[in-house]
Amino acid sequence: MKINICSLILFVITIVSCNSPKSDKYTGEAEKSIDNFPYITYNEQNLFPGDGSLLRVEDGVSLEDGRVVVVDQANGLRIIEKDGSNRPFGNYKDAGFINKPPNQIAGPNGLVLEHDGNHLLMCDVSDGKIYRTNIASEKTELIYDHNYGINAIYSDKTGAIWFTQCAENTNMGEMFMALNLSVPTGAIFRMADLKSFPIKIADSLYFSNGITMDKDEKTLYVSETMMDRVKSFNVDVTTGKAEYSGVVTNVATPDNILIDDHGNLIVASPANNQVIAFDFKNHSQHIIFDASTKENQEIANEWFRRSHLGIPRAELVTPNLFSPLPGLLTGMFFSKDGQTLYIANLGNDLVKLEYK
């Protein structure tokens, strides 16, 4: 059966950005704590800004002054003030950013704050562009244009840029097709600096996704979404040398990942509608945010069954997969003081939670 790419794009984008049904099951409070990890459930009151003004808020970062910057499909980036008011950020159209559905659909996806605290790097999963934004001046420049879409991005202390190519896609439709039927076209790349041509670190991955490093920047972690695992590589950020060291954990459809202030690996699990912490020291796993429902888990089980049998899965992406969240859960990020956890998703609002 031949899939019409434009139809697939519009179907998935419409589904994952729909407002999901309300539920009274969730309290939004930390109901219990195990080994100092909170267990937090969803509450509609935790929506932030809460007015549906964001668009495909896949990823974000917190700034030192308490403001939040998130990716925005229409404008590249948006900045959110502490009171929730927000506006386009970075003058992306001046840098050549274009979003004109249905023929040209942009995919702002990964976002990282450079170590200097003054610049942001954003990558587009649709057309493969990497943009760099000066936070103070809001000047944005295009620094690299990859052959395929770039899913996630990380900047190390030397200024080198590491990024994942989830598939050999040149638009959003082709990217979603790689989610429908798994193909080993994912890869990891490194740019030594802003002007360097990328060097391939690894390939033949099944939808390489979130990327980050440990605090010492000696280990690189990468989500391999369609294989339900997070891989690690021993790296030397000075030389760029990287050596595969194994699978650090298995988790359902891992998306964005980060290392928290205590060295724990935090993973977004879209299929399970959860955020999971992996404590390397105690070799334990903890659900720290849970928006799962019975309907969600039934769909997740069917997703895994089809994955193992090589059966298409796109039709399973419905609001029941991510309800009660505004959209499909894709990631999370902390405030600078670690007291606030933001849940990113493909909807129109973040989820803002107290994290203790």
Secondary structure topology:
Blueprint (H helix, E strand, L loop, with lengths): L4 H12 L13 E5 L2 E5 L5 E2 L11 E3 L5 E5 L3 E5 L5 E3 L19 E6 L5 E6 L4 E6 L5 E6 L6 E4 L5 E5 L6 H9 L5 E6 L7 E7 L2 E6 L5 E6 L4 E8 L4 E10 L6 E3 L5 E5 L4 E6 L4 E7 L3 H16 L9 H4 L6 E6 L5 E6 L4 E5 L2
Parallel strand pairs: 2-23
Antiparallel strand pairs: 1-2, 3-26, 4-5, 5-6, 6-7, 8-9, 9-10, 10-11, 12-13, 13-14, 14-15, 16-17, 17-18, 18-19, 20-21, 21-22, 22-23, 24-25, 25-26
Helix pairs in contact: 1-2
InterPro entries: 6-blade_b-propeller_TolB-like, SGL, SMP-30/CGR1_Lactonase
Keywords: Hydrolase
Organism: Arenibacter algicola
Question: Could you provide a short overview of the structure?
Answer:
The protein has helices at residues 5-16, 172-180, 294-309, 319-322, and strands spanning 30-34, 37-41, 47-48, 60-62, 68-72, 76-80, 86-88, 108-113, 119-124, 129-134, 140-145, 152-155, 161-165, 186-191, 199-205, 208-213, 219-224, 229-236, 241-250, 257-259, 265-269, 274-279, 284-290, 329-334, 340-345, 350-354. With 356 residues, it is mainly beta.
Walk me through what this model shows.
The structure is a single chain. This protein has one domain: TolB, C-terminal domain (Neuraminidase, 6 Propeller), CATH 2.120.10. The chain is 12% helix and 40% strand. It has helices at residues 5-16, 172-180, 294-309, 319-322, and strands at residues 30-34, 37-41, 47-48, 60-62, 68-72, 76-80, 86-88, 108-113, 119-124, 129-134, 140-145, 152-155, 161-165, 186-191, 199-205, 208-213, 219-224, 229-236, 241-250, 257-259, 265-269, 274-279, 284-290, 329-334, 340-345, 350-354. Strands 1-2-23-22-21-20 form a 6-stranded mixed beta sheet, with no helix packed on it. The chain is globular and about 45 Å long. The termini are far apart. The relative contact order is 0.16. The model is unreliable at 19-24 (pLDDT under 50). This is SMP-30/gluconolaconase/LRE-like region. It comes from Arenibacter algicola.
